[in-house]
Amino acid sequence: MLFLLIRGQSPAEADLNLLETARRCELYGVKMHPAKDHEGVPLNLTVAHMGILVFQNYTKINTFSWAKIRKLSFKRKRFLIKLHPEGYVSAFFSCL
């Protein structure tokens, strides 16, 4: 029945509405990477525009924002995320 909703729209309007719908879908375009936490609980990790997302049974349980991540490391099947300390103020610079 989706075609009834887009009937009469220009191609640009239909594209914009599709993108708006996809933007609201939390799992749209997300590739899940299986992992386990330190207690052995199965999780899924994803890399997204906002940072690293942690899912358990397709429910988002945590988000590590890029602004808060200090270091990412992967050694011997262990993935570690080091965060900046609380109260850390980051400065962003752009090259001209």
How does this model look, in words?
The protein is of the alpha+beta class and 96 residues long. It contains two helices and six strands; from the N terminus they run ααββββββ. It has two domains: 1-30; 31-96, Roll (PH-domain like), CATH 2.30.29.30. Helix content is 20%, strand content 39%. It has a four-stranded antiparallel β-sheet with strand order 1-2-3-4, with no helix packed on it. A two-stranded antiparallel sheet has the order 5-6. The longest helix has 14 residues, at 11-24. The model has no long low-confidence stretch (mean pLDDT 83).
Characteristic key phrases:
PH-domain like; 6 strands; alpha+beta; 20% helix; 4-stranded antiparallel sheet; 2 helices; 2 domains; 96 residues
Q: Report strand order across the widest sheet.
A: 1-2-3-4
User: Would you state the CATH class of the largest domain?
Assistant: Mainly Beta
How large is the share of residues in beta strands?
35-45%
Structural class: alpha+beta
Question: Could you list the spans in which at least 5 consecutive residues all have pLDDT below 50?
Answer: none
How many helical elements? 2
Q: How many domains, as an integer?
A: 2
- N-to-C CA distance: 49 Å
CATH architecture of the largest domain: Roll
What's the CATH H-level superfamily name of the largest domain?
Pleckstrin-homology domain (PH domain)/Phosphotyrosine-binding domain (PTB)
CATH fold descriptor of the largest domain: PH-domain like
| Helix and strand pattern | HHEEEEEE
Envelope shape: elongated
Estimate the helix proportion, in percent. Answer: 10-25%
Largest sheet: 4 strands, antiparallel
